[in-house]
Amino acid sequence: MTIPRLSIWGLTGIPEVQPGDDLVALIAEAAAVQAAGDPAGALADGDILVVTSKIVSKAEGRQVPASEREKAISEDTVRIVAERVHLGGTTKIVETRQGLIMAAAGIDMSNVPEGVALRLPEDPDRSARALCAGLREQLGVAVGIIITDTIGRPWRVGQTDVAIGAAGLQLTDDLRGDVDANGRPLHVTVAVLADELAGAADLVKGKTNGIPVAVIRGMARLVTGLETAGARSLVRAVDDDMFRFGSAEAYRLGYEAAMAEIKAERRQSSAQESSS
Amino acid sequence: MTIPRLSIWGLTGIPEVQPGDDLVALIAEAAAVQAAGDPAGALADGDILVVTSKIVSKAEGRQVPASEREKAISEDTVRIVAERVHLGGTTKIVETRQGLIMAAAGIDMSNVPEGVALRLPEDPDRSARALCAGLREQLGVAVGIIITDTIGRPWRVGQTDVAIGAAGLQLTDDLRGDVDANGRPLHVTVAVLADELAGAADLVKGKTNGIPVAVIRGMARLVTGLETAGARSLVRAVDDDMFRFGSAEAYRLGYEAAMAEIKAERRQSSAQESSS
Predict the structure, then answer these.
(1) How far is B259 from A270, CA to CA, in rounded Å?
(2) How would you label B75-101 residue by residue, b for 16+ Cβ within 10 Å and e otherwise?
(3) Do A247 and B248 touch (CB under 8 A)?
(4) SS3 B208
(5) What is the DSSP string of A208-251?
(6) Shortest CB distance from B1 goes to which of A12, A190, A207?
């Protein structure tokens, strides 16, 4: 039996990214320099490049003055999901324009220059497609692209990286209808490999060591043409979302609905009394 | 700059696990056979072994007859978080005895023999500690252990693997108070590496190819003694949980609370009327 095997490494040497920078050129250059020192590391067909959204935002000029952070959060928010006031301030979990559910609409002030806040890429799938097409053309190898951000999750502490943009690769193994080794239906329905790849890449990129891109080798079976669905397809449809609101918010909506019903009832019965 | 690098591979050759099997022996034997064919793959200090909970459950005799699946779900449920009836049946998201929020209390009928359902390990951290201590003793190398299960998440489609048990390794990078390359506070608070390792291992294990264990090499900095906190520490405390109930469930609680208030008010005012 062939042993399934993955290699993951960080792409070093990418400089601090500025608005208007050509990310394709910066990544291709860093990959070329790294390959010169380690020929086995030259990018090859089937490699997946996992890119931190922060450098995509920086290249796309998504910086806003830190003083306009709150305004930017409001602009990038489609819907408030949950809100909680605590000692350190207010945690606001929102749905962003990109369809992501995350704190502060993903607007971040770490790993950016002083006085600057950074919005998410406007359309991370579009950014991923541009990167993928550009790198495939420039390097002559069929790579896949995942753009990541770091997000929290209910029920579990802390954050992990997930795929917020993607191009040139299949993002999931859809196992619905498949069977296990015993011919029994699988419990799992859709294995979301793109999020697992995003998390795996974070292990070599880290948050503090300035490595914004990782290369994953060994998942060539996932790499496709550029027409494949992007990471937006990983967002759960509203009708399937059992956690559309925070518990406190949903409780309040239920409470208010009951009070409104009672009020309407009273209005009706007092109207009947006065007309009788 | 050193290039950070990870290797991840599947441990092949583990037979179908039976109740009472010695997992330490089975894993050590499979690792020895694999190392004979590939000496670089011999387990070494700092390797992390990621083990599918299914084989842990099987070895621990957590099988129940399929006809008792519903009873087992009830027994393993501490609290119903959300419930939804749909065409295929009822989806019940519950908190399990292990503190996990997941569908059907994690009781699974795939990759088990016909007529059998499988409960989660009773205490996955305890199982991980036993595996870790046993493998360290038998192999003479300091490995870390993560036990995984496949779980869904709100807001995003499908499932990914997370750590439900762990021993002998640090599970997170706690970045609270740390600063970025520019000296600015980090947005991220706690990077949950254990879940990212669990997901990374799933990429080589898969769901259908019968590889229940993966080895991750390159994260030796995480490997510790056996006293480190287990995966139970990754469960968010109830007081921090903004999504303690499904939206429909919380809405209903709010609605019922308002109705109960009104009823109490009416009872009080009719009591006053009759006494006046």
Answers:
(1) 19
(2) ebbeeebbeeeeeeeebbbbbbbbbbb
(3) no
(4) coil
(5) SS---EEEEES-GGGB--TTS--GGGGBPPGGG-TTSS-HHHHH
(6) A12
Say how many C-beta atoms besides its own lie within 10 A of residue B237's C-beta. Answer: 7
pLDDT for residue A87: 73
Q: Which residues of A touch B257 (CB under 8 A)?
A: 251, 254-255, 258
> What's the whole-model pTM score?
0.94
In this complex, do B200 and A195 lie within 8 Å of one another by their Cβ atoms? no
* Rounded Cα gap, residues A43 and A138, in angstroms: 11
pLDDT band at A183 (very low <50, low <70, confident <90, very high): low
Is the pLDDT confidence value at A1 over 90? Answer: no
Residues within 8 A of A (CB atoms), B 56-85 only: 82, 84
The radius of gyration of chain B's CA atoms, rounded to the nearest angstrom, is: 23
pLDDT digits (tens, 9 = 90+) for A77-117: 999 999 988 777 788 899 999 999 999 999 988 778 889 99
Largest Cα–Cα separation, chain A: 94
The residue among B1, B2, B3 with the most chain A CBs within 10 A of its CB, best to mutate, is B3
Q: Nearest 5°: phi and psi at B132?
A: -65, -50
Phi, psi of A70 (to 5 degrees): -60, -40
In this complex, is the C-beta atom of B15 within 8 Å of any C-beta atom belonging to chain A?
no
Q: How many CA atoms lie within 13 A of B245 on its CB side?
A: 13
pLDDT band at B188 (very low <50, low <70, confident <90, very high): low
